[in-house]
Design goal:
This protein is mostly helical. The protein has 9 helices and no strands. Helix 1 runs antiparallel to helix 4 and helix 1 packs across helix 5.
Length: 299
């Protein structure tokens, strides 16, 4: 039986993915040192010193005679495992797009990860406010960590918006055209997205790989590897966006055209009315239903 959207597994799997990915990113220099260490001795010493400073589990020792320890390898294995579990277990919420393929499920799972990252980001910011203004003991890491998380949220939210067809679109001309011309517009827009993604990846791969290989950091007291991770993430996500755009084109090819008007969505209004009830007191609300009585009549 299909699981209901919002079940516990849809919270735990994205959280497990975030924990594994976070650990892997923080300890990525260990795998660089094991698999492809820099030829330049100064760069090798710099990368080794950076990993030694950031190593969360220095007492475990590396596996297979290398630098990465058992927790690093578990995180490396956990990222694809949780990603596969996420694609298998993700369920469409009532307000989400109905037609789902494998690529759609991957985008939806990354959307769930994005939602969890928003919670993490808000928690970091609230913690910083508390310790700064209540305990008078500000952290050195909260600001940079917030910027780091916000960068990933911005990227992956764009992929989710593409899958949900919720990105900005102008329908003034599109709606008045026949279906064959609408398909032509869809092909042109998808082609432009793919071309943009191709040239962005082609032009940015060298710099992104260089920053990743050198594990370039932010240069602050906390010194997170924001350039080393955000630059490659931009290219990976834009590739996924291009793939999702092609998937959308194929999925929507034989669908009846939508007509976009300024009239309210009756289905959405019906769901809102069902949630708040049909009767109430006071002025009319945005659903054209009465505002509910929130206080006892005797008050």
């Amino acid at each position: 039986m299909q699981q209901k959207s919002g079940s516990l597994v849809e919270w735990l799997v994205p959280l497990g993915f975030i924990l594994c990915a976070g650990w892997l990113v923080w300890h990525m220099p260990a795998f660089t040192l094991d698999w492809n260490p820099p030829d330049d001795q100064s760069q090798l010493d710099k990368l080794s010193a950076l990993f030694a400073r950031n190593d969360v589990s220095p007492g475990l020792g590396g596996l297979f005679g290398g630098t990465a320890d058992i927790l690093d390898w578990l995180a490396l294995i956990g990222v694809p495992v949780f990603a596969i579990l996420g694609v298998m277990t993700v369920r469409r919420a009532p307000m989400e797009f109905e037609r789902l393929g494998t690529a759609d499920k991957l985008s939806m799972f990354l959307g769930r990860v994005t939602m969890m990252l928003v919670i993490v980001l808000c928690s970091v910011m609230l913690y910083e406010v508390f310790v700064r203004y209540i305990l008078n003991a500000a952290t050195l890491w909260a600001n940079e960590l917030s910027l780091w998380l916000a960068g990933f949220i911005f990227l992956t939210a764009g992929l989710y918006a593409m899958q949900q067809r919720s990105h900005i679109r102008i329908f003034l001309l599109y709606d008045v055209c026949p279906r064959w011309l609408q398909r032509t517009f869809d092909c042109i827009s998808t082609f432009l997205i793919v071309v943009f993604a191709f040239f962005l990846i082609y032009g940015g791969y060298g710099e992104a790989f260089d920053k990743f290989y050198r594990w370039e950091t932010f240069g602050t007291a906390f010194d997170p590897p924001i350039p080393a991770t955000i630059k490659p993430a931009v290219l990976i996500v834009i590739a996924l966006v291009a793939i999702q755009a092609v998937v959308n084109l194929i999925s929507d090819w034989n669908v009846d055209p939508e007509r976009h008007t300024d009239e309210p969505d009756e289905d959405e209004l019906a769901r809102l009315r069902a949630a708040v009830g049909q009767t109430g007191t006071g002025d009319m609300d945005v659903t054209r239903g009465s505002i509910q009585q929130t206080t006892p009549k005797g008050d």
